[in-house]
Amino acid sequence: MMLHKTIRKADGGDIIEILATDPATTRDIPNFCRHLGHELLHHEMLDENINLSTDTDEITIDSDNNMLISANLYRYLVKKKNA
Hints:
The chain is an alpha+beta fold. The protein has helices at 2-9, 25-36; strands at residues 15-20, 39-51, 70-79.
């Protein structure tokens, strides 16, 4: 997870903003904070059904390459614990 790498580089007390489209983050980020002692300051869904710009070489959808891909956008603020 990219959050692990970012947290490791941050100083104690730093606040990290995370923007995500993966719905699993609604479970994973609070668990990450709880297990490692960081503080989840804020979480919210910023927008629903946003269109994602994708490179058609990277993502294909069976029999419909013209289909719009959309997702929800989530925002989290995590405060790194002090060492």
